[in-house]
Amino acid sequence: MEESAGNLGTGCKLILSCNSWTKHSEVAGLVVIKSNYKHFPGGEGSLKSFKMSSIASKFIRTAGKVIRCRAAVAWEARKPLSIEEVEVAPPKALEVRLKILHTSLCHTDVHFWEAKGQNPLFPRIFGHEAGGIVESVGEGVTDLKPGDHVLPVFTGECMECPHCKSEESNMCDLLRINTDRGVMIGDGNSRFSINNKPIYHFLGTSTFSEYTVCHVGTVAKINPSAPLDKVCLLSCGISTGLGATLNVAKPTKGSTVAIFGLGSVGLAAAEGARIAGASRIIGIDVNSNRFNQAKKFGVNEFVNPKDYDKPIQEVLADMTNGGVDRSIECTGNIDAMISAFECVHDGWGVAVLAGVPNKDAVFKTHPMNLLKERTLKGTFFGNYKPRTDIPSVVEKYMNKELELEKFITHEVPFSEINKAFDYMLKGESLRCIIHMEEET
Ligand SMILES: NC(=O)c1ccc[n+]([C@@H]2O[C@H](COP(=O)([O-])OP(=O)(O)OC[C@H]3O[C@@H](n4cnc5c(N)ncnc54)[C@H](O)[C@@H]3O)[C@@H](O)[C@H]2O)c1
Ligand SMILES: [Zn+2]
Ligand SMILES: [Zn+2]
């Protein structure tokens, strides 16, 4: 029977007859599905045992070996990604190898692909917002085992350093975000190669590959019944926006919140403001097409800076009797960051920066703006600790406290990953889910 499942080397062919993306993740979750498996005369029960045994045996067969699979390689800045066959080495000590099932594109991928981030590093495999299954684990890994459902996260949690032990920080000393590093921290080498030439990692996740290797401290184990094609969004953007509001800005009931940038991060921040009971949620974006969409996320007033010939912080001060109570910046644009700070009310206003700035950006404001008792903060990943906190954010989705579907505006098969870049660059998409398994 395994023979008829096709090429077990990549794992892609295990799911030949599924007819929807959701079903793919259900298969991956080893859940019985209703499907047209003509090749499995024993019906769904035998299909289930086939899947369980074949997936488990496939993982046993690949453990400890190099896996050859497809990855989308960025050979140079701003050039379309190229789908290549890469070799993925087995995980070393404290590492895990993941089979990625669904990934999505966040603006941070685009930012580093455009080489606006720190040091351009190519060839590289981007991708950091994803859901997958543990394929194998390296020496010393006790928290995860093959078959576990996981979200890789770009910033980790070693659980032992002062940051991990502090309730106030998610900036782990060992595993905090590092955009310059393109190798594993254990031995300074890449686990990806093509013809023995290394391909760099990105953010320790590199999820634009059917298989990837991560440090165990950057992998959150989640409820196996959570649909990975939805909760993959919690591995970066949505958690970041939500946490930026709920964990960092902390608006009170009835307050006024300004959100700069109405992409997924900004709209998740708006969701946070709605959940916190803010009564005015003002969305600021240079793309007016965002406004209609943003209504679904609780944004109830809109401002396009292009419609005014004075600084947007002054417009907001006029609208709010002196300034907003909280602002959350989710653009990456330095002028928007400064406006987001200067638009908060003196005495109590708090501004939170979440956007990733260009490498030469300088934040300039008059110190008097701070002296007047405004607070400026920043956050990575909404201050969530990935391993400790993300499983419960997944549960918020499972309990219907958090809707993820409305962030998904596009879906493409892996072979069409470049479309996801086009949608984001044109400002058309919120999140585009990229399905690693091709529909057949
Ligand atoms: N801090 C973190 O942990 C973290 C995590 C994820 C993403 N990010 C960053 O958050 C930002 C948003 O990510 P996204 O995926 O939602 O991007 P996105 O491209 O989907 O959305 C960005 C939005 O900002 C708007 N915008 C751009 N310049 C603006 C300006 N000057 N004024 C007002 N609006 C402006 C755009 O029109 C767009 O609608 C990016 O900078 C990304 O790198 C940070
Ligand atoms: Zn991201
Ligand atoms: Zn730590």
UniProtKB/TrEMBL annotation:
Check the record and name the InterPro entries matching this protein.
Answer: ADH-like_C, ADH-like_N, ADH_Zn_CS, GroES-like_sf, NAD(P)-bd_dom_sf
Sequence intervals crossing the membrane: none
One GO MF term attached to the UniProt entry: alcohol dehydrogenase (NAD+) activity
Give start and end of each Alcohol dehydrogenase-like C-terminal domain: 265-395
Q: Domain (Alcohol dehydrogenase-like N-terminal): give its ranges.
A: 95-222
Compartments annotated for it: namely: Cytoplasm
Q: Name one GO cellular component term.
A: cytosol
Q: Does the keyword Membrane apply?
A: no
Does the keyword field hold tRNA processing?
Answer: no
Q: Which Pfam families would you find in this protein's record?
A: ADH_N (PF08240), ADH_zinc_N (PF00107)
Entry EC number(s): 1.1.1.1
What UniProt keywords apply to this chain's record, in alphabetical order? Cytoplasm, Metal-binding, NAD, Oxidoreductase, Zinc
Known catalysed reaction(s)? a primary alcohol + NAD(+) = an aldehyde + NADH + H(+); a secondary alcohol + NAD(+) = a ketone + NADH + H(+)
Cofactor(s) demanded: Zn(2+)
Question: What family does the entry list?
Answer: Belongs to the zinc-containing alcohol dehydrogenase family.
The subunit structure is: Homodimer.
Protein name, per record: Alcohol dehydrogenase 1
